[in-house]
Design a protein that fits this description.
The chain is built from six helices and 25 strands. By secondary structure, it is α+β, with helices and mostly antiparallel strands. It has a domain at about 1-50. The protein is about 15% helix and about 40% strand. It has helices spanning about 10-15, 20-25, 30-40, 40-50, 320, 390-415, and strands spanning about 55-60, 65-75, 80-85, 115-120, 125-130, 135-140, 145, 165-170, 175-185, 190-195, 200-205, 210, 220, 225-230, 245-250, 255-260, 275-280, 280-290, 295-300, 310-320, 330-335, 340-345, 350-355, 360-370, 380. This is F-box domain.
């Protein structure tokens, strides 16, 4: 560590609170700082400091053609306009003369082909192209990116309905995983998992659920588990469950097992609507319909994960407050002032709405910078981080392999 008037622990703590842009600039100050910023402990410390900023929110916005970042500060309570900043994303990599792709040697090339977000975790974004022919992992803050080898699905499922995905991190295994669930009425639901550490896909046992792809949302990450709304499919030939019955299905990233998470006991198994995260807790949005018209929605939060009795109804939103879009809303984040940021959708028209449960009022936030006249978009919470995509496990494996190759070369040279 460079000489400082502060103790080393305090200096490291100060540096870990800086934004990613500043840290990238400070890498050239001295070699000890450069090494520090790449160390796993510092990366985790930096992530912890920036992921708990409850009143400062960064969103990734996808309008179907481009990606944008949106920074929102809830302390500016009178602010109605927010700025969207367009960002380039990795998509096309030219091949060398041997037909191989070197993803690290070429600059990012933006494209207007459009992308679909499959998940975001610890500053790493997972997305695919609209024709689903390639999947990327990408840290927009560090510009590091990785194209996943293999689409992760079998020939049987290429004609399946839209595929639910989920992306997240497991502390126990210290690794990231991407989950894809393919349903086909002949073969059931097949699960495939990509692990970043091994850079490989593998198939898991089929599951007796039809996982909903409603709203095209990725699995909700809470407590190192991914969650979806699903329908029981007990047997491929005969579905014993009710057509409208719903369950919450979770996938444990560390142990790779599926379990059902109990819904609020006050609701029956036709509660269905949408899942989200509020205050770090699993959130369920349930609607009350009369004559097929949604009159209000209840927002429930599981305050103690895995405990059914901990489900608590936080608030109810009446149709008069949000209009027709009340049937398709997703909580994004709760702020210290008690207000909730929601994403709503009505006939392919999306909006970000700031809702005040205490006064039962709402106002739409105007996003400046997105294509003029473009009404559809999707958002994903995002934290700027230093998290690398090159696994330490793979680095150790490559070092060992290179060491073995060097030893073989030395032996060969001695014989000569």
């Amino acid at each position: 560590m460079a000489t400082s008037i502060f103790p080393e622990e305090i200096m490291v703590d100060i540096l870990s609170r800086l934004p990613v842009k500043s840290i990238k600039r400070f890498r050239c100050v001295c070699k000890p700082w450069c090494d520090l910023f790449s160390s796993p402990n510092f990366v985790k410390m930096h992530l912890n400091h920036h992921s708990i900023e409850k009143d400062n929110l960064t969103l990734l916005v996808n309008d179907g053609c481009h990606l944008y970042t949106v920074d929102y500060d809830s302390s500016l309570s009178t602010l109605c306009d927010i700025e969207a900043v367009k960002i380039d994303y990795p998509l096309i990599f030219p091949e060398d003369r041997y037909g191989e792709v070197d993803e690290t040697s070429y600059p990012l090339i933006s494209s207007d082909n459009g992308v679909e977000i499959l998940g975001s975790c610890n500053g790493i974004l997972c997305f695919t192209t609209h024709d689903n022919d390639v999947i990327f992992l990408w840290n927009p803050s560090t510009k590091e990116h990785k194209k996943l080898q293999g689409a992760g699905y079998s020939e049987y499922f290429r004609c399946s309905i839209r595929v639910p995905y989920g992306f997240g991190y497991g502390c126990k295994i210290d690794d990231y995983k991407l989950v894809s669930i393919f349903y086909n009425f002949r073969f059931g639901s097949e699960v495939e998992v990509y692990t970043l550490g091994s850079n490989s896909w593998k198939k898991l046992k089929n599951i007796p659920y039809i996982v909903s792809s409603d709203l095209n949302r990725p699995g909700v990450l809470v407590n190192e588990c991914l969650h979806w709304i699903a329908s029981p499919n007990n047997g491929l030939k005969k579905n014993r469950g009710s057509k409208d019955s719903k369950v919450i299905v979770s996938f444990d990233i560390n142990d790779e097992i599926f379990l059902e998470v109990s819904h609020p006991e006050q609701l029956d198994d036709k509660f269905g609507k949408h899942l989200g995260v509020l205050g770090g807790c699993l959130c369920l949005v349930s609607s009350l319909a009369m004559d097929d018209n949604v009159e209000s929605v209840d927002v429930w939060v599981m305050k103690e994960y895995g405990v059914r009795e901990s489900w608590t109804k936080m608030f109810t939103i009446a149709q008069e407050t949000l209009g027709e879009c009340i049937d398709k809303l997703r909580p994004i984040q709760s702020f210290k002032n008690g207000k909730i940021l929601l994403e709503t959708e009505d006939n392919d028209t999306n909006a970000l709405v700031l809702y005040d449960p205490k006064h039962e009022t709402s106002r739409v936030l105007n996003i400046r910078g997105i294509l003029e006249g473009w009404e559809w978009f999707e958002t994903e919470s995002y934290v700027r981080s230093l998290v690398p995509l090159k696994s330490r496990k793979l680095k150790k494996k490559n070092k060992k392999r290179k060491a073995i190759e060097n030893m073989k070369c030395k032996k060969t040279n001695k014989k000569r």
